[in-house]
Amino acid sequence: MAPQLRFGSALALVTGAGSGIGRAICARLAREGAAVAACDLDGTAAQETVRQIGGSRSEDGAPRGNHAAFQADVSEARAARGLLEQVQASFSRPPSVIVSCAGITRDEFLLHMSEDDWDKVIDVNLKGIFLVTQAAAQALVSSGCHGSIINISSIIGKVGNIGQTNYAASKAGVIGLTQTAARELGRHGIRCNSVLPGFIATPMTEKMPQKVKDKVTRMIPMGHWGNPEDVADVVAFLASEDSGYITGASVEVTGMKLAWGRTGQRSRTPTNEKASEGRLELLWEGQRLPRPGTEMGTPSPFISPPMHLSKCFCPSQEAFSCNCLKDPGLFSLPQPLCRVSC
Ligand SMILES: NC(=O)c1ccc[n+]([C@@H]2O[C@H](COP(=O)([O-])OP(=O)(O)OC[C@H]3O[C@@H](n4cnc5c(N)ncnc54)[C@H](O)[C@@H]3O)[C@@H](O)[C@H]2O)c1
């Protein structure tokens, strides 16, 4: 069946277009007829995206339009403004679909995070989106055009994640920025929505150790990671008139929100190993508990190193919780993972 061409006359600007989700978004929008301005800090990667989506016809016969690559650092005000000027000059119109997908991580515990790691992530993930959204909105308003702005946030902006104070803050900021922009720009016919992916298999998440990936997988209610195309599908919907009365929304693409407090019930093998002191028994759903207030410094079999349990307590005798400590350098499994029943 021929694909729907929802973007026949649209020009789409996509930042972070040289990799992962951004590249998949470019491909999806191009497949539905949009001309794509693919921007990335890595100009060669942006060109490769254009090469991949280029050509007059796709395999299924749909026209792909004309695309162009742009190199820009979205965290630099001059570069962001210059990007919009270059795109307008190249295509003789402002983009009517703007997808801000450029993003980075610099993970570290709050206790150890450098100011530089904080600033860099905020600059790219939050300030970059402010700069691109502002420049694009100014171009649209001054030319009297309507548009759809889609900012890529993250579910981490809503639920947090150990080792990612900078990232979580930046992504929470994107949600607030987008909601506010939607309120301000609605009267100009510009819709603004954010997308909150969960764990998506891309170069950004590839660097996670396999055992951490496995643990994350167990926390996803649908039981598997998303693909960049899963996010691109939602972006295409928000970019199109199919979502014409949706603005200020934050759409989660997560396989259902991560089960921070419910993990282990489905696929984890119950474990009941003795802790090294010999008087504590570990613990999973329904397993026996240590005495309330017991200190546990022993690595847990299911929160295997580098995570440790400490300061266990059992306030109600029906539920048990504890604090988790983790060494730096990994994505984390958060505190509720340690919750078990008496
Ligand atoms: N992969 C996931 O699990 C996941 C989950 C939630 C949200 N996200 C968000 O989705 C977006 C895309 O992530 P991804 O997984 O495809 O990552 P990725 O690392 O594969 O791609 C990010 C792209 O952004 C570009 N970029 C980085 N800094 C830039 C800058 N200053 N200016 C312009 N471009 C810049 C990079 O060169 C890269 O091509 C990011 O905003 C990320 O935070 C990803």
UniProtKB/TrEMBL annotation:
<dbReference type="GO" id="GO:0048038">
    <property type="term" value="F:quinone binding"/>
</dbReference>
<keyword id="KW-0752">Steroid biosynthesis</keyword>
<dbReference type="Pfam" id="PF13561">
    <property type="entry name" value="adh_short_C2"/>
</dbReference>
<keyword id="KW-0560">Oxidoreductase</keyword>
<keyword id="KW-0520">NAD</keyword>
<keyword id="KW-0496">Mitochondrion</keyword>
<dbReference type="GO" id="GO:0006633">
    <property type="term" value="P:fatty acid biosynthetic process"/>
</dbReference>
<keyword id="KW-0597">Phosphoprotein</keyword>
<comment type="subunit">
    <text>Heterotetramer with CBR4; contains two molecules of HSD17B8 and CBR4.</text>
</comment>
<dbReference type="GO" id="GO:0006703">
    <property type="term" value="P:estrogen biosynthetic process"/>
</dbReference>
<dbReference type="GO" id="GO:0004303">
    <property type="term" value="F:estradiol 17-beta-dehydrogenase [NAD(P)+] activity"/>
</dbReference>
<protein>
    <recommendedName>
        <fullName>(3R)-3-hydroxyacyl-CoA dehydrogenase</fullName>
        <ecNumber>1.1.1.239</ecNumber>
        <ecNumber>1.1.1.62</ecNumber>
        <ecNumber>1.1.1.n12</ecNumber>
    </recommendedName>
</protein>
<dbReference type="InterPro" id="IPR036291">
    <property type="entry name" value="NAD(P)-bd_dom_sf"/>
</dbReference>
<comment type="pathway">
    <text>Steroid biosynthesis; estrogen biosynthesis.</text>
</comment>
<dbReference type="InterPro" id="IPR020904">
    <property type="entry name" value="Sc_DH/Rdtase_CS"/>
</dbReference>
<keyword id="KW-0443">Lipid metabolism</keyword>
<keyword id="KW-0444">Lipid biosynthesis</keyword>
<dbReference type="InterPro" id="IPR002347">
    <property type="entry name" value="SDR_fam"/>
</dbReference>
<feature type="domain" description="Ketoreductase">
    <location>
        <begin position="10"/>
        <end position="203"/>
    </location>
</feature>
<dbReference type="InterPro" id="IPR057326">
    <property type="entry name" value="KR_dom"/>
</dbReference>
<keyword id="KW-0275">Fatty acid biosynthesis</keyword>
<comment type="pathway">
    <text>Lipid metabolism; mitochondrial fatty acid beta-oxidation.</text>
</comment>
<dbReference type="GO" id="GO:0005759">
    <property type="term" value="C:mitochondrial matrix"/>
</dbReference>
<dbReference type="GO" id="GO:0047035">
    <property type="term" value="F:testosterone dehydrogenase (NAD+) activity"/>
</dbReference>
<comment type="similarity">
    <text>Belongs to the short-chain dehydrogenases/reductases (SDR) family.</text>
</comment>
<keyword id="KW-0276">Fatty acid metabolism</keyword>
